[in-house]
Write a structure and sequence with these properties.
With 249 residues, the protein is mainly α. 38% of the residues lie in helices and 2% in strands. It is elongated, with a radius of gyration of 39 Å.
Length: 249
Amino acid sequence: MGHAYLTTSNGVSASGGRLGWRSCLRKGCSRTFQAQQYNQRYCQDPECMREVRRWHGAKRQRKCRSQAEGRQRHAEAERQRRKQRASAVSTPPQNETVAGDAPADNGAWSRSRRHPEIFCDRPGCYEPPRDSPRVPASYCGDDCRAAMHQARDRERKLLRRKTAAGRFKRRLEYQAARVKRRGDRATCGGMSAGQTSARSGTRPGHPSGAVLFYRRDGDEAVDSRAPTEVIAHDPQRTLDSRPRPPPAS
């Protein structure tokens, strides 16, 4: 079954880090528990764990019987079981047959018809997958898909943090978060709201990305064109200029 075994009892993982609170992944169980292992997905309620084991067993049975070889093995096992049961009880008359002793020539069959042949991949959910035009769907809806994605993404991140690259990336994230908190605290604590808005170039009640103009009515407009330099005497442009003779050798 997996994802249900515990190693400690005080809410601290084996690596020394404290894990947070999670919701049980089984559909229909809304219990919140404190994880004691990084890959713990379910609460430790006996009834919940019994339902999880039952779901995993039904999933394995459906997967095994979906193949011809699995159906043959199941049919042979059922045939041997019926023979053992018939030998354990008293031998019936010759004109009667034992109930359920008919040969299973068409493959194995299931006595339970409560669940469909293919059901959702979320533990505890027996709903059939929804229709998908491209690839076969694995979940009955968005809720089950989001819950499984959240659990797998959390486990992937926790395993990633155990590597050198993951720890380095985590330190960068913590450092960026500390710098941001310090900057926000210094900005908000050192000046009032009006001073903060004046320093950032905005006024109260205006969006932060708006551009404000502080020009007065009597001020002249500033010419933003590039200045051009005028040379008083340019020998290349003056008409009455003559070229100088070469120096005497």
